[in-house]
Amino acid sequence: MKPSAILLISCPDRKGLVATVSDYIYKHGGNILHTDEHTDADAHWFLMRVEFDPTEFDVALADVPKSFGPIAKLFNMDWRLADSATRPRMAIMVSKYDHCLVDLLYRHKIGELRCEIPLILSNHPDNQPIADFYGIPFFHIPVPKDGKSDAEKKQRELIAENRIDFIVLARYMQVLSKDFCGRMPGRVINIHHSFLPSFKGAKPYHQAHERGVKLIGATAHYVTDDLDEGPIIEQEVERVSHALSADEYVGVGRDIESRVLARAVKWHAEHRILLNGRRTVVFV
To answer: Catalytic: which of 165, 228, 247, 255?
Structure first.
């Protein structure tokens, strides 16, 4: 795939934003490949993703902050530039359930996920063979009840050493501390085994079964220190019937979780997600 530059912008809405950004890219020799915009009318907020070919761009991407800075200041922009040739580095954290882990590793192997996976962290040793099969370093760090802070310290050290850009919780069954979450805002993705906000807590599929629901689902969201309340990235539901058992609900749920998490990871790695308060805007 041909390398591209991706400009992500979030700012107060006002006239001339699209024209100004497009004109900047044009004047410096860039060719716009894709552009998406969204205006939050209630908040008077503008969000934009522009992907352009930098082959003839006369500003080195490393110098764009200086070149684009005056425009960003004029419009009070929160912005960043990404280079598609630079793949973000993703760490996977997992406990015993392996379905999301296996799905992500397979998708990565076939080139569907544009990221690097330098390591897998787990509080259990169960998934070591899977990591070995895919040739990815696996670190088993137990998380005892009275040793959570020490475990997280070891995890953070490995994350820093491996220059991790974002983390995916592939059914990691531990609640991350406020300190851990605060260090990586908007860079930790979780898959919740429920269609939030319904049926929170333990055994959501069993809760759903007891209620006789007709739809079950899963939710991928960014992690915050407010448990399961982070900005939602993707959700999916599937119809079920009275003929299925609770265990069959779990089987359906596993498939949904894997698909939803994979889409969230793909979109994050391709710089398609912008935070908008407690929500996300996903340009796909």
So the answer is: 228
Judge whether 5-83 and 89-282 match in fold.
no
Query: Please, are residues 216 and 248 in contact by the beta-carbon 8 Å criterion?
Result: no
Question: Domain 5-83 in CATH: superfamily?
Answer: ACT domain (3.30.70.260)
Fill in the amino acid letter for 230.
G
Confidence of residue 271 (pLDDT cuts 50, 70, 90): very high
Known catalytic residue at 228: yes
**In the predicted model, what is the mean pLDDT of the chain?**
93
Domain residue limits, the chain: 5-83, 89-282
Class of domain 89-282 (CATH, top level): alpha beta
CA proximity to 130, closest of 139, 138, 140, 142: 138
Q: How confident is the model at residue 2 (pLDDT cuts 50, 70, 90)?
A: confident
Query: What are the percentages of helix, strand and coil residues in the chain, rounded to 5?
Result: 35, 30, 40
